[in-house]
Amino acid sequence: MGRTMLVLAAVSVAALTGTSAAASGSGFEQGRFDRPAVEFADAELRGGLPTDVGLAPEPIAAAAERIARWTGSVPGREHPMYAGAVSLLAHDGVVVHRRAVGHALRYADGAGTELPPGQQVPMTPETRFDIASITKLFTSIAVLQQVEAGAVRLDDPVAAHLPAFAAGGKGDITVRHLLTHTSGLPATVQLWELPPERRIPAVLELAPERPPGGYTYSDPNMIVLGLLVERTSGTPLDRYVAERITGPLGMTATGYNPDPSLPIAATEFQSDPPRGMVRGEVHDENAWSLGGVAGHAGLFSTADDLAVLGQAILNGGEYGGQRILSERAVRSMLDPGAAHGLGFELDQRWYMAGLSAPGTAGHTGYTGTSLVLDPASRSIAVLLTNRVHPSREWGSNNPARQELAQALARALAVPPSKGSASWFADPARAATLTTDPLGPVAGPLRVSFDAFVDSQRDGDGTDPLVLEHSANGGPWRAAALRADGPGAPGGESTSLAGAGHRAWWRVHATVPARPGDQIRLRWRYAPDGRYVGRGVHVDRVLAQDRDATRLDGEREHAALHPDGWTSVPR
Q1: Rg for the chain (alpha carbons), in Å?
Q2: Closest CA to 376 of 360, 394, 390, 364
């Protein structure tokens, strides 16, 4: 792990462990992206407006409109992205956005034949969704509860509690291996093809594909953990989740095998196995073959209920006076110093977008669901869609996942380091910020500026911010940069990239020049458009030679010419 990643991890550990604000360079401030929290929250969800908690409403409104449009025709796609969706955003205990769009039931078959309008069912905020693999979070919480009860330890061999699991050379696989998907077990299994009495034994008897240690996301890991909870607690998994997690938290709309009379989003039309249009039964074939209750899938929930679970985690394991985990257990689940969380995914920019950081946690579900928890900003993003209705082949809803998380990141403020505005480059497009010719100079230029960089990870060669210089209209050349501040890369580099530190850097460069030269500078941001961060800000630009200040960006705003950059107050 390089110096940058060490600093990023340290900052995010502070956000979970309650270390002092000085350790991370800032303290939590409502509505701010650059003031990460250094302790758990203490809030119960209530309704409000974005402006009530210091958020800009425009990014949220724009994302909501895009999410709504994706229920219809989508450029470049043959089909809508999903039949319907419910989106929810919360910040510092305030639900600032909740919207339902499209349909819970729209199609009659797998080919996409639309039902008559009178038979289609509109989506509402109360619609229950098959949350698919988000179920794994509940199983993981249950396992940690059993650890806290002393019934199991993370480094226990699983076979110590489930002796049949030792088959196939799995005696060294631990509970931690299953939680972190490092067991070496295969990614999938097809239990529905087996006789009912062979399904659970088949999971326990699976042979590993490799020794423990390497990461392979695996449903069997969580199926086994569900069995482990049942064994150590003496309680069926569905009853355990109801009694120990959803019941105490008041999540009355969350459970396995819901009453079919409730408002439920349809999923896929399945012909193999022949199930027809699946609605009210779990979509995942393995969970269905196990009676709808399994450690990896099977739960149904609403956006509001998942927000309650999210707030309980941001609160350090407690909500509404009910504690489901200790703060210590939550820290262990979301440890940013670990490669993988305990059940929770960490720092996954592909759906967390600008909210991503080493301590950002969450999970997605195959049916089109996602939950993002950002402890640093005390924020929650929930997106529930039925993107597999009527067919899983209709494509991914990842753009919508990214859109919602990015909207919340952009709604959080990054105030200028000085003055009333900074230059901002959105990660959606390349941008250049070019100066007037500076000079004639008396020799080399000392250039300094502030940069707030939230792009992709430092060292991956993508989404760089570079400072380039040109003498007398000649070719552009990159300057060597030295950055100071939390999470800043050590030494010199010709580009700046990184994420998770959420702090301004002071950047210095020396631009070579001969007496009499006319020098132009430009800041170029070149995102690849794949997995974006919140974006890049530049402020407090200063260029000096030995005789004079050639550019003071705070006083000479008109000397900087943007192409893709915008002057913003936050």
Answers
A1: 26
A2: 360
In the predicted structure, residue 449 carries a pLDDT above the cut 50: yes
H-type helices in 245-397, by residue range? 247-249, 285-289, 303-314, 327-333, 349-352
pLDDT value of position 339: 79
Amino acid identity, position 90 = A
Q: Give residue for tokens 């299994």.
A: 189
Cα gap 191→168, rounded to integer Å: 18
How many angstroms separate the CA atoms of 280 and 305, rounded?
A: 17
φ/ψ (deg, to 5) at 240: -60, -50
How far is 526 from 503, CA to CA, in rounded Å?
Answer: 20
**pLDDT greater than 80 at residue 266:** yes
d(CA 506, CA 450): 5
List the structure tokens of 390. 């009527």
Beta-bridge partner residues of 32: 413
pLDDT in tens, 141-195: 999 999 999 999 999 999 999 999 999 999 999 999 999 999 999 999 999 999 9
Mean pLDDT of 537-548: 97
pLDDT mean across residues, the chain: 93
pTM for this one?
A: 0.93
Helix/strand/coil for 288? helix
Q: Is 108 buried (19+), middle (13-18) or exposed (0-12) by CB count in 10 A?
A: middle
Instruction: Evaluate whether 528 touches 428 at the Cβ level (below 8 Å).
Output: no
Alpha helices by DSSP H, listed for 18-51, are: 21-24
Show which residues are catalytic.
133
- CA-nearest of 469, 462, 406, 407 to 432 is 469
- Identify each DSSP E strand in 320-398 by its residue range: 322-323, 345-346, 361-365, 369-374, 379-385
Handedness of CA 30, 414, 350, 497 (dihedral sign): negative
